[in-house]
């Protein structure tokens, strides 16, 4: 059994390596842009005006209530077909991009991630203690300043564990790119299985790489969590000064 | 409005298979979850290690990979076992439906064991001590004290998991089970109308997750009916 594993790793190591790189690329871009898009969504979601709330609510509801693979097929096959029906589009310079599954994957992952992250952020924003908001208003902060100095730092502190989970969820979601012919880690493993008929060796190798990514991420994000919660740590270390400052 | 080229029934059949998948996985998920949670809280170190490494492994691997591994790998494994028993070359085919059920139960069971562990730890220790003082055996304590209260603590987590489960059944279409996504893909391919078919599939999934959300909210209210008045 180990001969087969060594054979797979020896012969197809470049496929797995390229798959690994593409997985990381999809993950980083999806999480970055998904988070950026989630911020306005979450802020609009906690708005007191119903009509501002409604749009992000519907967006989040649809993207969290349907399977990602369906969203991906809808984009790639559905929207892709609508685009290809446009007259003369196939001779246009943009056609090379418009038929590439890469962009459809990224778009779907970014939208999907933003919906999940926005929902987490909504919880974080709503859990900022009202006393801090009142204090900010009493200090004469504008809503913009309140968000950047009080609400967002607080929100990140609170949502970080959930956000970490969501990044891992997105990593696992990138495996779906293999269903639209992308050669990321799962896609590479599937192609190896198709070539060699050795499902255990290929899928378990890919699985181990995923595990390494997940636990490296978990470890790194734990470190960032400590940084985000540095104010609490300072209080723990020097209770005397913290008390003096508050008195 | 939506022209399904006479495949409306096909989509509904797919919907039925999706419901079947969810309801078949659910009991397995709960059993594996309870076993996993018990293993994690067990006084025996070896059981704790098994329980923890199970969730650690599953948490880090994409569901799709587990489904593929069980579908392609499971067939080979069962075939080898069958050949060992019968001693001759045999051809075994695991139905895609059941390999999908096994994969989803394995994945969701890992997350369920986290939910149940948290729920078990929420039960006040005094009640367990009281039960022990009354002379109950561990299994009696589990059935009479822990299990009835477990639901209340575990329902919000299970609600979430069931949502994930409904969405994850769509992944089984990859190995050819004719649930909603697969039916939609067939329609999308043969009738050249991917947008319509996937739109219908998404609406079906959205209605399923909505129904599950409403049902679980009702159950949560019901489970808390003795507590809510406080």
From TrEMBL, chain A:
Species for this entry: Thalassospira profundimaris
This protein's name: ABC transporter permease
InterPro entries per the UniProt record, alphabetical: AA_ABC_transptr_permease_3TM, ArtM/GltK/GlnP/TcyL/YhdX-like, MetI-like, MetI-like_sf
Domain ABC transmembrane type-1 stretches: 20-221
GO biological process: amino acid transport
MF term (GO), any: transmembrane transporter activity
Origin: domain of life: Bacteria
Family recorded in the similarity comment: Belongs to the binding-protein-dependent transport system permease family. HisMQ subfamily.
TrEMBL record, chain B:
Cell inner membrane as UniProt keyword: yes
Key words, A-Z: Cell inner membrane, Cell membrane, Membrane, Transmembrane, Transmembrane helix, Transport
Annotated transmembrane regions: 15-35, 56-76, 96-116, 195-219
Single GO MF descriptor: transmembrane transporter activity
Chief location category: membrane
InterPro entries: AA_ABC_transptr_permease_3TM, ABC_transp_permease_HisMQ, MetI-like, MetI-like_sf
Membrane topology of this protein: Multi-pass membrane protein
Cellular-component GO terms for this entry: ATP-binding cassette (ABC) transporter complex
Location(s) in or outside the cell: Cell inner membrane; Cell membrane
Pfam families linked: BPD_transp_1
Record-annotated ABC transmembrane type-1 domain positions: 15-215
CDD domains, alphabetized: TM_PBP2 (cd06261)
Protein family (similarity comment): Belongs to the binding-protein-dependent transport system permease family. HisMQ subfamily.
Protein name from the UniProt record: ABC transporter permease
Organism expressing this protein natively: Thalassospira profundimaris
């Amino acid at each position: 059994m180990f001969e087969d594993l060594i054979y797979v790793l020896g012969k197809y190591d470049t496929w797995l390596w390229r798959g690994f790189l593409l997985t990381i690329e999809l993950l980083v871009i999806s999480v970055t842009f998904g988070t950026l898009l989630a911020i306005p969504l979450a802020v609009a979601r906690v708005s007191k005006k119903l009509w501002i709330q409604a749009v992000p609510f519907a967006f989040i509801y649809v993207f969290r209530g349907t399977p990602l693979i369906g969203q991906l097929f809808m984009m790639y096959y559905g929207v892709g077909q609508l685009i290809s029906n446009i007259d003369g589009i196939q001779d246009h310079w943009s056609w090379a991009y418009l038929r590439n599954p890469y962009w459809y994957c990224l778009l779907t992952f970014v939208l999907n991630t933003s919906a999940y992250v926005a929902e987490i952020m909504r919880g974080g924003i709503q859990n900022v203690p009202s006393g801090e908001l009142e204090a900010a208003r009493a200090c004469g902060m504008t809503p913009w300043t309140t968000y950047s100095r009080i609400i967002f730092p607080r929100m990140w502190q609170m949502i970080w564990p959930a956000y970490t989970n969501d990044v891992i969820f997105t990593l696992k979601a990138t495996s779906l790119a293999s269903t639209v012919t992308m050669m990321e880690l799962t896609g590479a493993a599937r192609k190896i299985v198709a070539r060699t008929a050795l499902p255990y060796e290929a899928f378990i190798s890919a699985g181990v790489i995923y595990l390494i990514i997940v636990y490296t991420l978990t470890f790194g994000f734990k470190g960032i969590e400590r940084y985000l919660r540095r104010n609490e740590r300072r209080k723990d270390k020097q209770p005397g000064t913290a008390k003096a400052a508050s008195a | 409005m939506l022209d399904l080229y006479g495949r409306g029934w096909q989509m509904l059949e797919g919907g039925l298979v999706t419901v079947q998948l969810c309801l078949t996985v659910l009991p397995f998920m709960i059993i594996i979850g309870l076993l996993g949670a018990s293993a994690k809280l067990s006084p025996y170190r070896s059981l704790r290690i098994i329980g923890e490494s199970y969730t650690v492994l599953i948490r880090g691997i994409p569901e799709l990979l587990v489904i593929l591994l069980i579908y392609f790998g499971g067939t080979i494994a069962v075939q080898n076992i069958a050949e060992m028993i019968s001693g001759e070359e045999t051809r075994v085919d695991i139905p895609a439906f059941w390999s999908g059920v096994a994969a989803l139960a394995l994945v969701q069971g890992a997350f369920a064991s986290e939910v149940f562990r948290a729920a078990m730890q929420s039960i006040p220790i005094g009640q367990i001590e009281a039960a022990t003082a009354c002379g109950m055996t561990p299994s009696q304590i589990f059935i009479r004290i822990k299990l009835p209260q477990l639901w209340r603590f575990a329902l919000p987590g299970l609600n979430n998991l069931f949502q994930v489960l409904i969405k994850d059944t769509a992944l089984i279409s990859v190995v050819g089970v004719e649930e909603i996504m697969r039916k939609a893909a067939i329609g999308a391919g043969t009738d050249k109308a991917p947008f319509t078919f996937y739109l219908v599939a998404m609406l079906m999934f959205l209605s399923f997750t909505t129904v599950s959300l409403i049902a679980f909210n009702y159950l949560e209210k019901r489970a808390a009916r003795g507590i809510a008045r406080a």
